[in-house]
Amino acid sequence: MKLFMLKVQDNAASETVGYRMWTMTAGFVVLANSEKEARSIASANGHSEPGDDAPWWRDAKLTSCEEIAIDGPSRIILTDQPTG
User: Fold this and answer.
1) Alpha helices in the chain (DSSP H)
2) Residue 38: which of 28, 48, 53, 25 has the closest Cα?
3) Domain range holding 50?
4) Which of 32, 61, 66, 70 could form a disulfide with 37 if both were Cys (CB 3.0 to 4.6 A apart)?
């Protein structure tokens, strides 16, 4: 298993993905066997309404998917800071 960090690309305007940014998940850290599986898991869980698919998580033009190496220096993997 590997860790993957998925984020909405800066160039993926809300019009492109079809939803306003405040109604969608902006990122995930996923444990999966592959990038394809990580994107599929994010897609199945990446929408504000349970059961809705979020297909942009499978599109590398709209979202990034970076494998997180478990070796290397200590670092923060995720900061979740609500605003508003």
Assistant:
1) 14-17, 35-45
2) 28
3) 2-32+43-68
4) 32
